[in-house]
Design goal:
Layout (H helix, E strand, L loop, with lengths): L11 E5 L32 H12 L4 E3 L1 H4 L5 H7 L3 H7 L2 E5 L22 E5 L2 E4 L6 H4 L7 H9 L3 E4 L4 E4 L4 E3 L17 H4 L4 H4 L9 H11 L12 H14 L3 E2 L2 E2 L4 H4 L3 E2 L15 E2 L3 E5 L5 E5 L8 E2 L4 E2 L15 E4 L4 E3 L13 E3 L5 H4 L23 E17 L2 E3 L5 E5 L12 E13 L5 E17 L4 E11 H5 L5 E8 L1
Parallel strand pairs: 1-2, 1-3, 3-6, 19-24, 25-26
Antiparallel strand pairs: 4-5, 6-7, 7-8, 9-10, 11-16, 12-15, 13-14, 17-18, 17-20, 20-21, 20-23, 20-26, 21-22, 22-25, 23-24, 24-25
Length: about 525
């Protein structure tokens, strides 16, 4: 066995597993890459048991090629990672089958394969001479309790796979586009028909083991909100991988729906509304201090230019990707309805040049709900809104070369400094103007005193499943100034304000050009 460049269109398996806590894991590096291509090289190495078992299983099933990340990605090459890591979904979606090691880490092996022990905890009681009673294996328990279910990368590996074999400590599960089954005698008849816009978790009647793995996933935009929420509960060893480990899901949704994404948010429809995402979490008083609290992600994302160079960009504060420990993230993907935004957002390059968020090949999308503006028109926002156009001299032009994204947004908006107390927002007359949206556990102390707020969008009520209703309220962000003179700010949390009260601030409001990092 050795590392090879596989022939085109060849059948291959892919391994999805948890690396574990190895001190010096064997992996592909630039120094040993050439030697690893020699036939028989891998047999002479001490490889983790899970990888050895996966190789044995692949060979016994008559397949010649197996893709394993630590062997097929050059681990000490930023250039190779910048090419391969954003395409992980393609590796798993093109694989003939994905092997999921849900019975431990790379060191524990695949239960029942190549001599690795299976651990089946099943109580049996003899009640008569020839009669015994036995526990039925819980359908989801071994899978739900596995470390594989806690890791960020395995989320899209499971979702994007066409066929998947899940090996747990006590049984094996199979999932593909036409069949869902397991070894247990319980619940063997699984519903399999998945229609466009179906919610996968509902179709599969609550069996989580099949709700987040391959076969039958339709990647509808209406599912994206719940997929983001599930993904945010996972953990990443390398925090800088947060976008790469979800890019495959976004790519699948984009292909299926026509949406275009920018830092985890759709820019094809209601981008402004998605910036008002919240984080709704609740912990008992005895537990909340032990929980990890939301905090800004400090790591950087690798961006590869067309010439092969790699530059690193900090994750933006305005995106859910820019924050850690947001296990209750809510509304990062609002309902698909055509709505004219109040403000015009542009993206900024590392050179400070502005460009449209959407590409020139933007696709026309259909609304899934009716829109009722409830008598609101341009005159409603005239009291707080000014000219939203950007100076053409700031635009990125073709002769400026490739657009190197910074992750920053540029836009005109309305700004005011208001008092905050116990999550409520007040004007100078101590009249309530609005409130902060949930972000921290309720037991945590919230920002207080004088705080800066900027308007992001109009508030829409989508509680009705058929009609989206406009409201005379505004979505805003509480921001911290990184450079007050240059109007460079970062998001702290979202808020909602009454539009009439905002207009009533008068001279306390100002119309400014903001860079949001």
């Amino acid at each position: 066995m050795c590392i090879v460049d596989a022939p085109e269109e060849c059948p291959y398996f892919a391994l999805s597993y948890v690396w574990g806590d190895e001190e010096d894991p064997f992996q592909t590096t630039l120094a040993r890459l050439h030697a690893m291509k020699d036939p028989g090289f891998l047999e002479a190495q001490v490889l983790p048991k899970t990888i050895v078992d996966a190789m044995v299983l692949t060979r016994e099933m008559g397949v010649d090629y197996l893709w394993i990340d630590r062997l097929c990605v050059i681990q000490d090459s930023d250039a190779d990672k910048a090419v391969q890591i954003p395409q992980m979904d393609l590796v798993y979606s093109h694989a003939t089958m994905s092997i999921v090691a849900a019975c431990g880490t790379a060191l524990d092996g695949l239960a029942g394969i190549n001599g690795t022990e299976r651990i089946i905890k099943q109580n049996i009681a003899r009640v008569a001479k020839d009669v015994s009673l036995m526990d039925v294996l819980h359908l989801d328990q071994s899978h739900e309790n596995s470390r594989w279910m806690t890791r960020g990368w395995t989320f899209q590996e499971g979702l994007c796979s066409r066929r998947i074999l899940i090996i747990t400590s006590d049984q094996v599960y199979w999932s593909c586009e036409t069949s869902k089954c397991c070894e247990s005698i319980a619940f063997e008849a699984f519903p399999t028909a998945v229609a466009p816009n179906d919610i996968i978790f509902n179709v599969l009647t609550g069996h989580k083991v099949f709700g987040e793995v391959g076969g039958g996933q339709n990647f509808a935009f209406g599912e994206l909100d719940s997929m983001i929420r599930s993904y945010c509960t996972r953990k990443l060893t390398v925090q800088a991988d947060v976008l790469d480990a979800f890019t495959g899901v976004l790519r699948r949704v984009a292909v299926n729906t026509g949406h275009e994404f920018y830092w985890g948010h759709s820019v094809s429809m209601r981008f402004d509304d998605s910036l008002g995402w919240a984080n709704i979490v609740w912990y008992p008083d005895s537990e909340w201090e032990a929980q990890e609290k939301p905090e800004r992600r400090r790591e950087t994302h690798r961006v590869r230019s067309s010439d092969g160079t790699v530059h690193k960009v900090r994750f933006p504060s305005w995106s859910w990707l820019g924050w850690k420990n947001i296990q209750g993230v809510s509304r990062p993907a609002p309902k698909q309805v055509l709505v004219e935004p109040e403000l015009q957002f542009m993206k900024l390059s590392l050179d400070g040049k502005a460009a449209k968020l959407c590409s020139a090949k933007e696709q026309k999308l259909d609304s899934v709900m009716k829109l009722n503006m409830c008598g609101i028109d341009q005159s409603t926002s005239a009291g707080w809104k000014g000219d939203t156009s950007i100076d053409p001299s700031l635009f990125h032009m073709d002769n400026d070369g490739e657009f190197r994204d910074s992750g920053h947004l540029l836009f005109w908006t309305s700004h005011a400094v208001l008092d905050v107390e116990d999550g409520k927002i007040y004007n100078d007359a101590r009249e309530e103007v609005g409130e902060l949206k949930p972000f921290w556990p309720y037991q945590m102390q919230k920002p207080s005193g004088k705080q800066s707020f900027i308007v992001m969008s109009r508030k829409y009520n989508d509680d009705n499943l058929k009609v989206l209703k406009a409201e005379k309220r505004l979505n805003a962000l509480l921001v911290e100034w990184e450079d007050r003179e240059k109007r460079v700010a970062s998001r702290i949390c979202a808020a909602g304000v009454d539009e009439a009260a905002w207009i009533g601030l008068g001279e306390k409001r100002e119309w400014i050009l903001v860079t949001l990092t």
